[in-house]
Design a protein that fits this description.
187 residues, alpha+beta, GMP Synthetase, Chain A, domain 3
């Protein structure tokens, strides 16, 4: 999917670049203002294997699993949503970097793919008796990018820098600790 070549698009790129410069100036003066609480994602079980995740702004994303595992198969899986988040976050950061550098992107598409072992989801053991990991065995990002009159090296550097600044990518690289708090309600 490319971007339209219009004056509105160019203005938007300038608006983004200006907003980034202003934010960076504030953060240089007051670095602590950069630390903030992220919007929580609230996942509510709807019955069966269907779950709907809600954002505070009212957005809702339903998920389900494959028919073979008892789901309806009519919604995206939570694993797909994870890959979509990784790809979308990387694309957003690359687009921000392009706007900041005055690069007018013509195309930016990221495909996030992985391989997983369903045995992990089911809590099964491997032949050696160890639990099969439930998560992705590997992740790949395939980036397609184009910009008029911008060399390949500069575009590659833009992609590398954007991915390094991606919060979702950083959470994966840092293996951010997860604290689990359980509230059991009386029924």
């Amino acid at each position: 999917m490319g971007f339209p070549n219009s004056d509105n698009h160019l203005m938007k790129e300038r608006d983004i670049a200006g907003a980034l410069r202003r934010a960076e100036a504030v953060l240089r003066r007051r670095p602590r203002t950069g630390l903030h609480e992220d919007a929580p994602a609230t996942a509510c079980w709807e019955g069966g294997t269907r779950v709907i995740s809600h954002h505070a702004n009212g957005a809702a994303i339903p998920t389900d699993i494959a028919i073979e595992l008892g789901g309806s198969g009519d919604q995206v899986s939570p694993g797909w949503l994870f890959r979509a988040g990784l790809a979308a976050c990387a694309a957003t950061c690359i687009a921000l970097g392009a706007a900041a550098d005055g690069v007018e992107l013509q195309r930016l598409e990221i495909v996030a793919s992985s391989r997983s072992d369903t045995r992990g989801l089911l809590g099964m053991l491997d032949a050696d008796g160890k639990p099969v990991p439930a998560g992705s065995r590997d992740l790949q990002l395939r980036v397609r990018i184009a910009a008029r009159q911008v060399g390949e090296q500069r575009l590659r550097a833009l992609v590398d820098a954007g991915i390094r600044c991606s919060p979702v990518y950083a959470a994966l690289q840092l293996a951010v600790p997860l604290a689990v708090h359980i509230d059991v309600e009386a029924t």
